[in-house]
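Reopening this ticket.

The earlier resolution said the output was attached, but the attachment link was broken on my side. Pasting everything inline this time so it's all in one place.
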Amino acid sequence: MSRIAVCPGSFDPITYGHLDIINRGAKIFDKVYVCVLNNSSKKPLFTVEERCQLIKEVTIDIPNVVVDSHKGLLIEYAKQTGANVILRGLRAVSDFEYEMQGTSMNRLLDETIETFFMMTNNQYSFLSSSIVKEVAKYKGDIRALVPSQVEKALWEKSTIK
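Inline output:
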């Protein structure tokens, strides 16, 4: 049986924190689907297509990573891909409280799909897409937070200039 994981998120934009989880997950699982979800409670800067393209660019050297998007329930996507694990990154205790709710609901919907929590590297424990966008908005240096492709895409967005 293959070990297949789905690593979901809004990835608006993808950061080094996200990449830390994806890279480490790719060493544990045979295949990792990085799935861009549209979080209705957030107002994204990038379209789903733009986010997928950026993720593809920055994960091109990880052969067992597949980038995709989904509009429905995460658990349905996991079933469609044959995933037996949902891979989630945690930065702090506050993340755990939020993640526990989603995990409990996913378990109720399908108890055969496990959730695997991975603590992000300490150097990225403060990092979020929101913080990256805020720093970029005020023309701050984001080179240590995101890959160069993402930095370029942020500068190209008219709302950031």
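Reporter confirms the inline version is readable. Residues 4-124 form a domain with the Rossmann fold fold (CATH 3.40.50.620). The beta strands are 4-9, 31-37, 65-70, 85-90, 114-119.
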